[in-house]
Amino acid sequence: RISKLHATDLLPKNQNGWQNTRDFLQQVVEILYDYIKEENERTSKILDFHQPEEMHELIDLTIPEKPMTLQELLDSCQQVLKYSVRTGHPRFFNQISCGLDLVSMAGEWLTATANTNMFTYEISPVFILMEKEVIRRMIDLIGWGPDQGDAIFTPGGAIANMYAVNAARHQHYPRVKPLGMSSVPTLCIFTSEDSHYSIKGAAAVLGIGTDCCFNIPTDNIGRMIPEALEQKIVQCKREGLQPFFVCATAGTTVYGAFDPLLKIADICERHKMWFHVDAAWGGGLLLSPEHRYKLAGIERANSVTWNPHKLMGALLQCSACFIRHDGLLFQTNQMSADYLFQQDKPYDVSYDTGDKAMQCGRHNDVFKLWLMWRSKGMEGYRRQINNQMHLAAYFTERIKTIEGYEVIIEKPEYLNICFWYVPPSIRHLDEKEKYARLEKIAPKIKAKMMERGTTMVGYQPDGQKPNFFRMIISNQATTQADLDFLIDEIVEIGKD
Ligand code: ABU
């Protein structure tokens, strides 16, 4: 029946179209059910990889002149999912954000249906209050006082980091907002060489300049060296620059390292600088009483980035920037648009969050987090995160016992395990030759893995280190057997 119908046969165009609407949505949901079921079956493939030109042939992506039928739309939904990567598959280890939490997904469905904007209480009364509640809970976990802290949910951690740099600059140099950078001396900021590239990106966007974003060296497990930081700050001051911002990372992207927050906090205090912690990845550990010590000192931060779409497993996107000084987000970003933020509304307008944000329209990212968090409670998260830490330790120890595997960091601090796989044919080579050949091994194994569609794991080079795998264990569906599968698969593919 649906094959002859069009969108105009549905609500709201067709006021008698409730049955059609229900049938259509029911069928969409059936397609999603099938996808979810299949994604959770270990025998199903993670992806059906094709080169872009081939993919163009396989799937029609054109926008037509004439309306398509509902059946054609359903077929499109099916096709799109057929060629999508199953990021919730228990053997998907490719990204820091992976897994599909079904309660969070249900939250995202509701959010899409409610389809509202997070800039005013007027149009999002419940979600605004919910956001305040969740932000408060996260601030308590960071460890700020009851009267401290505010936050804004942002489109990803890179933007959250940019909010932090901007707030810091406004706190130190408020004249930049009206007058621009010509009103201040040359500013500079600091972050570790293993930190996320978005700090440099923020320097570029905010007019500080990438050359004035200094990368501080890290130790042998990827943590910023505090003495090197202080030396660089002193040198910059001597050269006439104005250091004002330090980013410490809690959970670096490649090695999962935690910078020494307490020592960095001391340096920032001594030099009267803003102390930011990029805990986009590591922030979730605050939910584990056993592992939160790795973030000791975060309570001294002036700002924190924390992405619940990473370790906490909220659906993409769910990121937030926390600022300890309440009111600063408003002061930094407020533009007072009269058409949205009228001051004579019939409620307390401090509940209108829009003027805290750089963006105007803002997606509701809190509902899926709130619903999921309620489904687990604090206890559920503690179990989930401790289990992932246990799996990471298992994986690390296991590969150390298998010929050909070489770990890069003997005892990783977190859920990133970086390693080489050295195939039998090059094991006998001297170190120099072996490392030269290794550059091509991880990409080759990964390409084969994608062709097989059985599992996925990322790789990258780092400085002098040739391409190595970066295993991420943040998918709550993953078990020990899935890790064993990956280990065997790499050995199997790596055979010459
Ligand atoms: N900050 C995004 C990290 C993406 C990834 O490494 O999976």
From TrEMBL:
Cofactor(s) listed: pyridoxal 5'-phosphate
Gene Ontology molecular function terms on file: glutamate decarboxylase activity; pyridoxal phosphate binding
Stored Pfam families: Pyridoxal_deC
Coiled coil residues, start to end: none
Annotated GO biological process: gamma-aminobutyric acid biosynthetic process
Residues modified as N6-(pyridoxal phosphate)lysine: K310
UniProt key word Nucleotidyltransferase: no
Cited CDD domains: DOPA_deC_like
Keyword terms, alphabetized: Decarboxylase, Lyase, Pyridoxal phosphate
Origin: domain of life: Eukaryota
InterPro entries attached to this UniProt entry: PyrdxlP-dep_de-COase, PyrdxlP-dep_Trfase, PyrdxlP-dep_Trfase_major
Gene Ontology cellular-component annotations: cytoplasm
PANTHER family reported in the protein's UniProt record: GLUTAMATE DECARBOXYLASE, GLUTAMATE DECARBOXYLASE-RELATED
Homology family: Belongs to the group II decarboxylase family.
Assembly and oligomerization: Homodimer.
Protein name: Glutamate decarboxylase 1
Lineage per the UniProt record: Eukaryota, Metazoa, Ecdysozoa, Nematoda, Chromadorea
